[in-house]
Structure formats: structure tokens, C-alpha cells
Write a structure and sequence with these properties.
Shape: globular
Helix content: under 10%
Number of helices: 0
Largest sheet: 5 strands, antiparallel
Structural class: mainly beta
Strand order of the largest sheet: 8-7-6-1-10
Radius of gyration: 14 Å
Distance between the termini: 12 Å
Strand content: 35-45%
Order of helices and strands: EEEEEEEEEE
Number of strands: 10
């Protein structure tokens, strides 16, 4: 998943979801940032009212300039063969971590851009050029 974000500096950081796809048993979710200033990248199995249960998660605290008051380009990747999850920021790998081979491969029953699927945790800011790809991108093709 890739997208440009511009967080409202008067309202960020706060609990918000940039994108979320889910089925009855799987999720894919990105938050830039959550209220604690962390960027979260979640994939895997298990869905609960607010959080990802039993999922693969990587997260990192972001500087204010990385989520508010300017345009930033984020790319979220997951490579199940390599058991790797990555977050790229403005064309450079910003964070990575191990993941399992859990694939969010069930039929998607709901997808939201700019909020959780139940309409809460709305993103306060602008989102542009959202893209979804079925191949992992690298720094050389950002």
C-alpha cells in the first residue's frame, strides 16, 4: 500500500486509521500516527473492536514532521516469503521488522480509506494517490 499524507497540525497526533481492509478473520491496517505518535502497520488474523489480535505488527515513533504539516509519502509492504514487513517514508526504508507467514488472504468484506471500517478513528488531514500492489516495492522503485 502506498499513499501521500498531510496530517492537520492542529489535530495530530491522534488515534486515526489511514486504511483498513478486513474480512471475518483477517485485517490489513495502517495508522499514521496513532495518538501515541507511533506509525503502526498491522496485518494478519484476528479482528476485534479496536485492535488487531494475533496479528503481525511493526511500529515506530515518528517525528511530528513525518506526519503533520507537510506532505509525506508512505509505503507499507509485507513479504510473507521473507517474513518481513517494511515501512518506507519519502522513498527510504524507515522501519522494518519480522512477521510471520500470516497472509491476509480471505475475501475482503470491508475496506475504508481514512477511517476504521466502522467509521471511527477518522484521519484528520489529506490523503492522496492511494495505491495497492500485489508485489513488494523497494527503495529503487519508490
Amino acid at each position: 500500500m502506498s499513499l501521500w499524507t498531510y496530517g492537520d497540525p492542529a489535530l495530530q497526533p491522534q488515534d486515526n486509521v489511514l486504511f483498513r481492509a478486513q474480512s471475518t478473520t483477517n485485517i490489513v491496517q495502517g495508522s499514521v500516527p496513532w495518538g501515541d505518535g507511533n506509525v503502526y502497520w498491522d496485518t494478519g488474523d484476528g479482528v476485534s473492536a479496536c485492535c488487531v489480535v494475533g496479528a503481525n505488527r511493526i511500529n515506530k515513533v515518528a517525528a511530528a514532521t513525518e506526519y503533520e504539516g507537510q506532505w509525506n509519502h508512505y509505503v507499507f509492504t509485507k513479504n510473507t516469503s521473507a517474513n518481513a514487513m517494511r515501512i518506507y517514508l519519502n522513498g527510504v526504508q524507515w522501519h522494518s521488522g519480522g512477521g510471520s507467514q500470516i497472509i491476509a488472504g480471505a475475501t475482503t468484506t470491508a475496506f475504508n480509506l481514512g477511517s476504521h471500517v466502522d467509521g471511527i478513528y477518522n484521519y484528520d488531514g489529506h490523503i492522496d494517490e492511494f495505491r495497492l500492489s500485489n508485489i513488494e516495492r523497494s527503495e529503487s522503485v519508490m
